[in-house]
Amino acid sequence: MTRTNTSPGDISTRPLDPLKDAELIHPWVTHPKAAFWMMQGATRQDVEREYAAIVAHPHHHAFIGLVDGEPAFLMERYDPAHLELVGLYEPQPGDVGMHFLVAPTDTPVHGFTRRVITAVMAELFADPATARVVVEPDVANKAVHALNAAVGFVPEREIQKPEKKALLSFCTRAQFEAAVGAAV
């Protein structure tokens, strides 16, 4: 489902189509600034296969984020009771896992990534079944830790995933609303 946030700089999402969007997102996920995405050496075909598997998975969904109608970020939502965090924490009803990646640019706009993560969180909490959002970024990714804190995430503990040491963090609807100053 596509949902539009009417805040300045119209932000919306649409489902990712692996066949059509692999060309678009390949330079995003392989860019040096996307090192924590762990796809540095991926070919376009690798990206297409990875996202075809995500789209086919019943508990994992990928979206292209649009700003003023132009592709600008990648968003994934997943059910942590079924993937990514199975056995690493005790999932609660209403938990939703999230990943996001802003497209690289030669002309960064101050505050843009914060607007994107705020819109991603608003999108996730627009679903009344979402009670809290769960993230597991690399412990070394200090920039995303700061962004997560800005929208209400509270770190719980470090966990060891097969591919990385991660900082398990949670954000409830109330924490998000308090952080961004608006009701969802």
Key descriptive features of the protein:
184 residues; alpha+beta; 5 helices; 28% strand; globular; disordered N terminus
Structural write-up:
By secondary structure, this protein is α+β, with helices and mostly antiparallel strands. It is 30% helix and 28% strand. The chain has five helices and eight strands, in the order ββααβββαβαββα. It has helices at 18-29, 44-56, 112-125, 142-150, 173-180; strands spanning 4-5, 11-15, 60-67, 70-78, 95-102, 132-135, 154-160, 165-172. Helix 1 (18-29) packs across helix 2. The longest helix is centred in the middle third of the chain and has 14 residues, at 112-125. It is globular, with a radius of gyration of 15 Å. The model is unreliable at 1-8 (pLDDT under 50).
What share of residues are in beta strands? Answer: 25-35%
Number of helices: 5
Uncertain runs: 1-8
In angstroms, what is the radius of gyration? Answer: 15 Å
- Terminal Cα span: 18 Å
Could you state the order of secondary-structure elements as H and E?
EEHHEEEHEHEEH
The order of strands across the largest sheet is 1-2-3-4-5-6-8-7
**Mean pLDDT figure:** 91
Indicate the structural class. Answer: alpha+beta
Helix content: 25-40%
Number of strands: 8
Shape: globular
Largest β-sheet summary: 8 strands, mixed
